[in-house]
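User: I'm putting together a teaching handout on how sequence relates to shape, and I'd like one worked example. Could you take TonB-dependent receptor from Wocania arenilitoris, show the sequence you're using, and then write out its predicted structure as tokens right after it?

Assistant: Happy to. First the sequence, then the structure tokens directly below it.
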Amino acid sequence: MNKILLLFVFTIASTFFNPIFSQNNITGEVKNTNGNALEGVSIILNPNNYSTTTNASGIFNLQNIPDGNYIISISHLGYKTIKKSIEIAKKNITLSFVLEDDLLSLQTIVVTGTFDSRTSLESSTSISTLNDKAIQQVYPQGTANLLQNIPGTFTDASAGEVFTKVYTRGISASAEDDTGWYYVSLQEDGLPVSLVQHSYYSPDIFHRLDLTTKKVEAIRGGSSSITALNAPGGIYNFISQGIRNDFGGDIQLTNGFQGEGNALYKIDANIGGTLGHNWFFNAGGHYRHDDGARNTDFPFSKGGQFKFNVVKKNSNGYLKFYGKLLNDKTNRYTGVAATNWNNPTPAFGQDFKSTSLLMPSFNANIPDGRNLAQGATNSFNPSQGVHAKDLAFGFDISQNLGNNWLLKNNIKFSAKDANWQTSISNAFVSLNNPLSYFISGASFPIGQVVFRDVQSGSELARVNNSGILGGDPIQYLTQGNLPNDAIMGTSAWYKDNKADEWMNEFTLQKKLENHNITTGFALGFSDTSLFTQGSFGFVTYEPNPRMLRVTLENPGDPIIQLSDSNGISNYGGLFFVNSRAKVSQIATFINDRWKISNNVHLDLGLRYETIKHKGSKDRFAPFTQNGGLDGNDNTAYDNGILAPTGERDNFNYNYNYLSFSGGINFKIDEEAALFARFSKGNKAPELNYYFNNFSNVPINQKGEIQKINQAELGLKYNLTDFSFTSTFFWSQLKDIGIANFEFDSGNNSIFYTPIQFNTSRTIGLEWESVYAPIQNFTFRFNGIIQNPKATDWKVYDAAGSVDTSDDSITDFSGNTLSFNPKLMFNLSNEYQKDKLSAFIKWQFMGKRYGNVSNGFKLPAYSIFNAGAGYQISKNLSTDILVTNLFNSEGLANFFGANSFGANANGATSEFIAANPDTSFVVFPVLRRRALIKLNYSF
């Protein structure tokens, strides 16, 4: 009996203590081919996903590993991944690894656009990576400015950090200037920066680049149809700095000069380390003060952000808590006037390099049309630009559940606020045009009109406009006159956008012998509101505009104030939009990565998405009271305030669709792979469909779901000194809803034309290559050749008025798709030896049509960037960076004729032939910028 009891106790003890007695430790060292230790290398042991990273000496340690057979994976950005089978059957193991350079990061693990982590070479998608070195070679101008380094990505950052455009492969038609990220998802650590878009509310408003970003992964089309919320055009995922085994980080000071001596000051910092056993933290951010590349009388950008993450690792995965606080002000440049359609040159004394045409700084209080009875006002100062605030925090969980089950869940909450106080439009309005006076809101501003400088109070010009209604020119009554005999058609534009958002992505993955099946769901909920109010600003039309106080001073009559003391007129009479919406995006997906053979993997995925838009839009009418808001007949500037009538137009629509994407990867050998993919994606309307359209009419129909079909065939090749990827693609975009922004000079109203539904098709070839023929030199070449077509395209012509009796529809089918170059590339040479580094880069943008009528073509241009760096000591380094080295005057965008309310589509061949000498509005690229950076690493 005692023997049996002893045997039982021994058996239980053996079962309980055996896992402890059989634990092992693995230590190792990782270096590069030059023998230097590599810090931050990711070490993963599977099964069970044991993981760690190397310290500053390149050393790693995995503890308490049970006996068994494992595959150890050694990966680091910029180096080829090593996978090796090992058997663990003793206490301690010591390993040593040497990582080879991975010129295109084809052997680096990627997580974007895929449901399971894999190397880029094994992926059946067209994916590119920008590492921290590439990020540091870019002038800190904004998100879009960085992304132009990714092949096949068209970006327009000519307006600054916001109001940018980003798209790929001709999927561009609805990516207008005010919703420039329409088809793509801008992400931070796998979740969208913002769930919703509408006019002047794009995700770039809430995204800033600094040392907290470790790398960028970019997917062009393809699998984004099934891996992103309502973003079939691509994914740009900014991945934050991760785990450091030892305390350390970077502090970076930047001092730059741009334009005509305008300064930039910026401080970046990022630190990380341990907080205890298996606890890690990372924190950082930046603050900057930027006077801008063009001339304004106020700082163009100022503010910054703080980001952090705290990670708790366990034997089966990790839990990460992360957050961001953004509080930043930036502006955006408007266009510059040009003449000569064949060779655009600056007009009216303006300069493509330095002119901004933004209103100067002033402080005004403009009545809030929503709450006139309460006497509410909105503070307005153009120097504020767009004030973006974003408070975000979330949890990211990854846990191995055993038996080859893996659970992941990423959840984030954010509260966003974007307040715009800036100029919109800067058109030429002749003093001979009745609009110059009637836009003030006055009933009959005819006679002697006096223009005074707001700052000095001095009289600049006094005119008699009595003949303009009969077609006669104005007469100057004194020696003074206004520059160019005109005022600027511009609006004091106030917008207040808010959104509370919650998003979550959950995946459950099961690995079988030949299948890796992933299923899950993605949720996104946004409670958002929009208020827009526009007032007219009397401003001189000259390179450095001045505000004008304007009066009507007819002899024997009371003086009529056409503007207030700041030069603001027609309070709240140009725009009024007051809307709110609740948006829900719910998607479920399933994906199978099927191992057909050791070299062939088939990737099949389905995604069902349902999007609900529920909200309302206020109807409005001019506030009617004798003498306007203040009851004074002599102050005309408050006579036309738009205010809610109390009626609301509601909308409540659902959009449901099924997307598919299938890809195959054939691994030729360890260095080369072929892939092919076909995708059928969908794009539901954004909120601008309701907010921009249906002015004072019922919202009686939902928007159209755009269909995106894409096919691609690619080759990836990775050798020691040469790597390249090339992808042939075909993409089709259907059911594109197009409406133009128009101005009716007869009643001073702004409206959008009826929507037309169109189709485009683009075929092309993308490539990305790196060649290192000799030690220390590296050549990079990437770009795109494409043929974009507007296969079925119609434009509604409102003939400049709300009246539909003279309207027409023009057919431009078969024309070249606008704003898509046929050729675009980046070519660079990098040098690195010992403590010295240098680079020079050539960015080429081919010719692009400025409208679908193909009436105007933007010329090709080149921009050269250069830089050099030196490692002063182990901890201290310095870099010099020059952007647009030769001061290129390239034109990035086109806004049509230089008149208030005009648009690019109006500049047809017939219009240009009939108006060869008229001026038009273009957006030049930003001129030369230079900076010096001092970086301290510890």
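A couple of points you could highlight for students: Confidence is low (pLDDT under 50) at residues 3-21. The first helix runs from residue 2 to 21.
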